[in-house]
Amino acid sequence: MIKQFADYVTFHLMGLTPGSHGGEALNFFIYDTIKIFLLLTSIIFVVAIIRSSFPPERTKRILSHNREYVGNVMAALLGIVTPFCSCSAVPLFIGFVESGVPLGVTFSFLISSPMVNEVALIMLWGMFGWKIALIYIGTGLLVAIVAGIVIGRLKMEKYVQDYVWEMQVGKQEIEELTFRDKLVYARDYTRDLLKKIWPYVVIGVGLGAFIHGYVPQDFLAKWAGRDNPFAVPVAVALGVPLYSNAAGVIPIVSALTQKGMAIGTVLAFMMAVTALSLPEAIILSNVLKRKLLVTFFCIVATAIVFVGYLFNIIL
């Protein structure tokens, strides 16, 4: 039904020709925008009900009672239901550290939250099918867990800014919500989240539509095509300076895939954009000393490159 509506608007109301640059770009934009917003609204509402049982205070307490591998796994899984961008995850990252959560565990959350969440799952599922979505979620969790464990093993607590350790957290009571309260919370949360991310969705779909309709396939294949052995690190290097969340970058990923780029290459690009960004580095520089910040970026970037090559081999 969505496809028919997009075709009707594009080729009948607007009078554009099928196969033309403008027609294909507009058709892509209308179809993907409607599909993404329908998926986001329905699934985020359900996830919000689930996450309403885990307020920040309870989350901190749960993670602070675990060490090493168990804590890393739990923190990475927590990232699935906390759809923060790389920058907005930083305040909760600080809260975890000053609450006594091990440093490596907090990094597992910081990596997982922007890169692996219900937004990414919904949009990947809708565009590429459940296999690609689940493989992405699985490898994303693996990157978050392994990187967090490595950082924890390096014992780099001394490279966290001193003021973070000096912060104190008051003991807050956890309010239990009724199911009706959870429904109200889910409604408000879904509305507020959509208000925040809708520009990313529209801009991302718009860029994806432009790529889909106007960028020649040979251009992308030349620089990051399937025959380029260095396509994955090039994609990661291009992704790090950018800043977006999953809602904004996945439509671009879809368009790049249709233009001939290997799925592992474009998903590595997506991971780099969502989990690593210059704005995030600027914010984290006020929390982490340079050595830890550089170590974090290098470990995650290396893991993403590995995952990109793995995707290309598997798929």
Folded structure, characterized:
- The structure is a single chain.
- This protein has 315 residues and is an all-alpha fold.
- Helix content is 76%, strand content 0%.
- Helix 14 packs antiparallel against helix 16.
- About 2% of the residues have low confidence.
What is the secondary structure topology, with strand pairs?
Layout: H1 2-13, H2 21-51, H3 56-64, H4 68-80, H5 90-98, H6 103-115, H7 118-128, H8 130-153, H9 162-166, H10 179-214, H11 217-224, H12 231-239, H13 246-258, H14 263-275, H15 278-284, H16 290-314
* Spans where pLDDT lies below 50 across 5 or more residues: 168-174
Shape: globular
Query: Could you give the order of the helices and strands?
Result: HHHHHHHHHHHHHHHH
Which quaternary structure do these chains form? single chain
What structural category characterises the helix and strand content? mainly alpha
Number-wise, the strands total: 0
Beta-strand content bin: under 5%
How many helix segments? 16
Rg of Cα set: 20 Å
Helix percentage range: over 70%
Mean pLDDT: 77
Distance between the termini: 30 Å
Q: The biggest beta sheet, please?
A: none
Q: Which terms summarize this structure?
A:
315 residues, mainly alpha, 76% helix
